[in-house]
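ingest -> validate -> predict -> emit
validate: passed (alphabet ok, no gaps, 276 aa)
predict: started
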Amino acid sequence: MAEVLSFRTDASKASASLVLRQLADGILRLTLNNPPANHLSLAMMETLMGELQNAAEDDDVRVVIIASTGDVFSAGHDLKELTEHRADADDGEAFFEETFALAADLMLEITKLPKPVIAEIDGLATAAGCQLVASCDLAICTDTATFCTPGVNIGLFCATPMVALTRSAHRKQAMEMLLTGETIDASTAKDFGLVNRIVPKQYLQQVVTKYASVIASKSPMAIQIGKEAFYRQVEMPVEEAYGYAAEVMVDSMMTEDAEEGIGAFLENRMPDWTRD
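emit:
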């Protein structure tokens, strides 16, 4: 399939350039494009949110990759933007509320998206940038990537990044990152459970695209059902989770894709998945 390259905007050409959009073979690559820091400013989050919402409704999109330009994956919220609003009549409280509420909505959009989202990290992912990584379904980074939740270093506690981090990394390791604010390297991030794979810089995009291609070849229906079920059951007590999972299995067995997939396996042929 020929590669399709396009750019979208919700409000202006300026906001469109914040996130580059590339779609090829069912894989949507969304690239944060505001170096050097790729801050999750209000405009960046609004633009990324719009792209994810569009992807949810686009049958041509099977997998989403979130990548970045420059040497920083994302330095999190724009502290300069936040500080400027301290001059507001309410000392910035309304803007702070809007920023952190939008960040939460963005992370939830990733979790609820009916398609897998892979973070492709080359460089530093800090604070809300680390939160973004932790919110994605999979994360693959270079061997020089670094991660941190440094709020405590500037008089804050990374409370919103904490939500995604504690659901991705192991609990005590997440607390270590939150309490110390120290930067961890790629190997430590993998040990902590924050990333899946570490690859040399020159192979990052190739490896991530390969993972995305493998996932894109599977049943869209099964992937959608499975992703939703994963995030629902993980918060349940084990007995409740098994009961729920059994219901999901029965419902899945009744789908066209399960019938087609099992039939294809028994007949030793490639399955023809439904597309809606």
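The radius of gyration is 20 Å.
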